[in-house]
Amino acid sequence: GAGVSQTPSNKVTEKGKYVELRCDPISGHTALYWYRQSLGQGPEFLIYFQGTGAADDSGLPNDRFFAVRPEGSVSTLKIQRTERGDSAVYLCASSLGGSSYEQYFGPGTRLTVT
Amino acid sequence: AQKITQTQPGMFVQEKEAVTLDCTYDTSDPSYGLFWYKQPSSGEMIFLIYQGSYDQQNATEGRYSLNFQKARKSANLVISASQLGDSAMYFCAMRENTGGYNKLIFGAGTRLAVHP
Asked: Residue of A6, A23, B39, B80 with fewest CB within 10 Å of its CB?
C-alpha cells in the first residue's frame, strides 16, 4: 500500500516568509510525528499527534512553529517568519498507535531559507 | 538526560563481509526501547530492528542483529553478509519514557560504504 507522503519534496523560500509543509500518513495510522534533520545530524523530535490532538509539542523550537491535524489524518507543519536556521529536512512519520514501535517515515521536505 | 552516541562517522566493509556499527546510550529509566534505522540517499528513514530493555534475547531481523549489552549500555547493530545496497547512513535511536508513545532520540549516525 501507499507509504507516508510529504509535499513539497523541496521548498526554497526567502527569510521572513511563511511556509507550510504537508504530511499524508499511512491510512489508518492514528499516531503522527514530525522530526527535523539538520545537515550531518540525526532527526530531532518536534511534535506528536494522537488523532487530531497534539499530545506532545515539546520539540517545537519556538512559537514560529505550529502544526495541525484537523481530521486526524493529514498534518501540516507551519513556519512563520522563516529564518536561515530553519533550513533542514523535515520528516514526518506515522504508526498504528502511539505505542506501536514501528514508525514509518516519509521522504521528507527539504526546506531552504535564503 | 537521555542521549545516544555513535562514535563512527564512517565505516566501510567488503561485500559479503559482516560489519558492526556501534551505539551507546545513556538513560536513567529502567524501561526504554532501542531502534536502528537506515537512511539511503533518497532520504527516507527505514526501520530495521527494535530491542526493548526487558527483552531477554538479542533482537534479530534477517541479516540484522542487535548486540544488546545492557550493563555496558550498548546496542550495536551487526549486518551480516553485506550487500552493495546496504550503503547508507545508519541511525541508532532510543525511545524516551513518555508513557506510551515513541518519541525518539537519534544519534548522529554512521555512514556505511560497502565495497565490491
From this structure: B80
